Amino acid sequence: MRGFLHMLFAIIAGVAAGWISAVSMIENYGFEAAPGQAQWKERRNASDHPAAPYAFGYFINQGKVPPPLTSRHFVRTTDEDGNQIRNNCLYEVSGPMPAARRWSMAVTGSDGIAATLGAGEAVYEADGRLRVFLSAQPVPGNRLTLPPSGTPLISLTIHDPQDTTKPLTLPGIKMVRC
Amino acid sequence: MGRFYWFLLFIAAAIATHAAYVLYYPGYNFDSKLEATVGVESRNRMILLTPAQVGKLFPAYATSDIVAMCRYELSQGPMQLSAKLPRGYWTFSIFTVKGRQVYSLTDAQAGESNFTVDLLQAPDLIAQLKGALDEGGDAEAINEVGWKVETPDSRGIAVIWVPVADPIFRSATLNAVRNSKCERKS
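Structure tokens for the assembled complex are given below, as produced in the milestone run.
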């Protein structure tokens, strides 16, 4: 009887450990800080990357299709100072976009529904730079609506970047006011 | 010795659960979530997604982009996917139900704006061994290589993505993508 209880405990503890480690690794493994821009984390989902099954799992577990292999997908939840992006503040995303065939930016809230902006819809500054405001309230210019609840997740996808050997220069996110 | 045995059992149970969760659960979950978003009728046909569906399913695309998707099921036989797209940037991707991308094509790689791709399930290990032992098996397989994609899973999705550069061309692009096909190969 005692041996049976030991076996049962070992199996239950093993199943719990396996489940917790799988959920945790799907959530966290495979994110790498972008070179020189540590606030942006890149999700590596190339099929030959060791984190690939976890990266696929991260997206499909949420019912989302992973970004295509011809693109590079970056996410962040913090501004340039490392503070978490808050729903009731105004932020400015600005800086040069890497040379690529296309880019798209999104803000996702706790409900999983994203507000998006594509390269074709954005209005650029006279010098070719991009400014996008993140705000729950209407503001002039390019805007991505911050969700009413949950920590906003900002994502930036660069489709077919021109130079795949060099690190990509990504825009920064500054808080304007709260 | 007894404690070592229980520890081994713990490790085996942990590895089996970890592998099963990572390899199978997300795929099962994904298919049911996809069906909930795009409907039961989306199997084996190309459907044009609404901006709300794009925002929910594709973290890499903008909701203003044009996206068509086919949830393929290969257990009844190969499928054929075809499209004639307008000039400009587009991508065509095939994913398994586990989220692995098995095929990618862009306008630059295709060199033209129309394509036809045959999609079939890769033979399992026994069928591969049998094929290799059969006379001429390899030669026949090589002759058929071309716009043909073999996927390890019988289920998955094929996606056409066309980002619209100028709203003026949106309606023409929508019509072109709407005419893309995903049908059982006769």
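The first helix of chain B runs from residue 2 to 23. The two ends of chain B are 62 Å apart (CA to CA). Further analysis is deferred to the final report.
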